Amino acid sequence: MSLFHREAPRALLQDKIDLIDFAFSRFDLRSFADLGGVWGVEGGYTFYTLEKHSVSAATLVDTHPTAVVTDRARKFAQLRLVTGNFGDESIAAQVGDVDAVLLFDVLLHQVAPDWDRVLEMYAPQTRCFIIYNQQWTGSEATVRLLELGEEEYFKNVPVDGTEEPYVGLFRKLDEKHPDHDRPWRDVHHIWQWGITDRDLRAKVESLGFRLQFMKNYGPFGDLEHFENHAFVFCR
User: Fold this and answer.
1) What is the reported pTM?
2) If we measure between CA atoms, which residue out of 131, 54, 61 comes closest to residue 91?
3) For residue 2, pLDDT beyond 90
4) What does the alpha-carbon distance between residue 63 and residue 69 come to, in Å, rounded to a whole number?
């Protein structure tokens, strides 16, 4: 039995829908990969994009596909479902070349490889990154949240340590996760990074992309040091 807690699907966020509409219309995108797009929304942004835009090929990647997603996917001949961690090079190879990569609420979770290495992996395979991420405003430089210590960690994430998978987290950081061949400190189910806009932009621009759109959508819940920011980078 998995210890990975699955919450009920949330409604799609209009800010993300608008971001998709802008990018696909402005840059004539015909193929895409939605990385980690099952969690919480049952692949909703993949299916929205397929229904509203002229897409010839799409890939939805997640470690935990659901019956809802697999059933709905049968309606779209141009959609492939890939089960696995999109940070694995073998998964990136399966994704292949696409016009756009969607990274919604996932970069801050990526470790081993870290978020910046994930961008490096997919950069040669795409011409646009469409990113919506909870961005860190608590310092000038990006931080690994676990390194803040237990007290500061839970001050800066939207959980209080009483729900899975956060229960007893700091006591088991070096134990192997039951569902992944890696320690708890390196699983993507928990908040991992506070990524600054400066560092995100520097990384993506160093890979040959130009910022085409950026918007601050305001605070993430009641967290003092996180805001929802959106980006489109293309080349």
Assistant:
1) 0.93
2) 61
3) no
4) 12
Three-state secondary-structure class, residue 166 = coil
Count of other CB atoms within 10 angstroms of residue 11: 7
* Contacts of 18 by beta carbon, 8 Å cutoff, 6+ apart: none
Structure tokens at 226: 């996180």
13 vs 35: CA distance, rounded Å? 17
The one-letter amino acid at 203: K
Cβ neighbors of 99 (< 8 A, separation 6 or more) are 27, 29, 30, 31, 32, 126, 127, 128
* Per-residue pLDDT reduced to its tens digit, 67-77: 999 999 999 99
Residue 129 parent element (H or E) = strand 128-136
- For the chain, domains (ranges, CATH) are 14-181+191-234 (3.40.50.150)
Output the CA–CA distances (angstroms, integers) from residue 217 to 104, 137, 202, in the order listed.
14, 13, 21
Beta-carbon contacts of 168 under 8 Å, excluding residues fewer than 6 positions away, are none
